[in-house]
Specification:
Elements (H helix, E strand, L loop, with lengths): L9 E4 L16 E7 L3 H4 L2 H11 L3 E8 L5 H13 L4 E6 L1 H13 L27 E5 L11 E6 L4 E6 L7 E4 L9 H20 L5 H23 L4 H20 L4 H12 L5 H18 L4 H10 L9 H13 L17 H11 L1 H4 L8 H11 L2
Parallel strand pairs: 1-8, 2-3, 2-4, 4-5, 5-8
Antiparallel strand pairs: 6-7
Helix pairs in contact: 3-4, 5-6, 5-7, 5-9, 6-7, 8-9, 8-12, 9-11, 9-14, 10-11, 12-14
């Protein structure tokens, strides 16, 4: 049994946690405040609370509110240039996974160069050494989806090459993360589902990955059980504070799990899809792929005991079989109203599957190496095909 558990972020967790930010030491005096291009942070009151905290501590800020649903390279580079020009000495990410991922990439790039892609070590990335420490990052998550507040990964799309790559660097761990479940209360049901399933699939993939260990297993099963208990409640009754809190907990744990184990090829397959179709929410793409992907693994008896354990974590009782995990998963997808998602609605066609497979297996080779059995290009195409509607 071997593992290395390194999550150096201080995590403030709980309903109302953002109210305490004004009393916590911030890591600088001038922040690049990164938000989405929408208005949710303003509507929820989160932006005003962050500004009040900055004012109380004598900090100034520059607002960068240009992050979309899938952060892209030009936007990240623009943010890094702004942080450098304005001499910002730390970054605040206020938003969901896209905002946090973009902020990590900005924090890494600003002190080191002009182009984030120069440092990415996969696909067409330049793989240049990172000579200067990234700017300190404060992550304030407004969703329960990516777990980005508890890991050191940034997922960014290069629109020129259609590569969506997750890049890991220990300097991108937030120094402080705020997980305030009250900020998720206004999220629409559809987005709640997409985000929640992303958290669930982080946990399930890390549990069946070949890098799983005793520590990651414990956290994975806890996250899975919380998702099974609270996700449908959060989707179908958005004001359910207990459910929102439970999903925030499941999400943060799933972020920690990714530092201990690793996502599998399913994540790489989805990255190729949403790189091609930026309007496709990452969680929605994962939902589309999940039944066929896990069926492929179960039919090949990849790790029967692990699928049984996950089925039990999702509430299966009695003489549990590996296929019961799939039954529970599909029932949860239906209960959350996400069972009719279609690739075709996002412009993906069967003739795209070979190029999607090539993209996934090259740009996200790292996650394919986490599979317990290797997937061939033909296997990947077959899973895409079975997932197609």
């Amino acid at each position: 049994m071997q593992f290395e558990f390194f999550v150096p972020s201080r995590i403030m967790f709980g309903n109302g946690a953002l109210d305490e930010l004004k009393d916590r030491a911030l890591p600088g005096k001038k922040a690049l405040l990164v938000t989405s291009c929408g208005s949710s942070a303003k509507r929820s009151g989160a932006l005003d609370k962050v500004l009040a905290a900055l004012e109380k501590q004598g900090c100034t800020y520059v607002l960068f509110n240009k992050i979309g649903a899938n952060p892209d390279l030009p936007t990240v580079n623009e943010g890094a240039r702004l942080a450098e020009k304005e001499e910002c000495d730390f970054v605040i990410a206020l938003g969901g996974g896209s905002v946090m991922d973009a902020s990590k990439a900005i924090a890494l790039t600003a002190p080191n160069g002009k182009n984030y892609w120069d440092f990415v070590t996969a696909g067409t990335g330049g793989g240049k050494p990172i000579k200067n420490k990234p700017l300190p990052l404060v992550a304030i998550t407004t969703t329960a989806g990516t777990g980005s507040e508890a890991d050191a990964t940034a997922v960014v799309t290069n629109p020129e090459t259609l590569e969506k790559i997750g890049f890991v660097h220990s300097g991108m761990f937030p120094v402080l993360s705020v997980v305030d479940s009250s900020l998720t209360l206004g999220i629409p049901a559809k987005l709640t589902a997409y985000q929640g399933f992303d958290a669930l699939f982080h946990a399930t993939e890390c549990y069946v990955a070949n890098k799983a260990n005793k520590m990651s297993e414990m956290l994975s099963l806890t996250s899975i059980s919380y998702c099974a208990k609270y996700l449908a409640r959060a989707v179908n009754c958005g004001g359910d504070e207990e459910a929102r809190d439970g999903m925030s907990f499941a999400n943060t744990i799933s972020g920690m799990v990714m530092t201990l184990s690793g996502c599998t090829s399913k994540h790489g397959m989805e990255h190729a899809m949403s790189a091609k179709c930026p309007s496709l929410a990452h969680g929605a793409g994962l939902i589309m792929l999940a039944p066929a992907y896990y069926e492929h693994m179960i039919e090949r008896h990849v790790c029967d005991d692990r699928f049984i354990a996950m089925a039990r974590a999702m509430g299966a009782e009695g003489d549990v079989q590996p296929c019961d995990f799939l039954t529970k998963l599909c029932a949860l997808i239906k209960e959350c109203g996400a069972d009719n998602l279609k690739m075709s609605d996002y412009g993906i066609r069967p003739e795209d599957f070979p190029s999607l497979a090539e993209n996934a297996m090259s740009s996200m080779k790292r996650v394919f190496l986490n599979d317990r059995i290797p997937l061939t290009k033909e296997d990947v195409i077959a899973i895409y095909s079975k997932s197609y509607k």
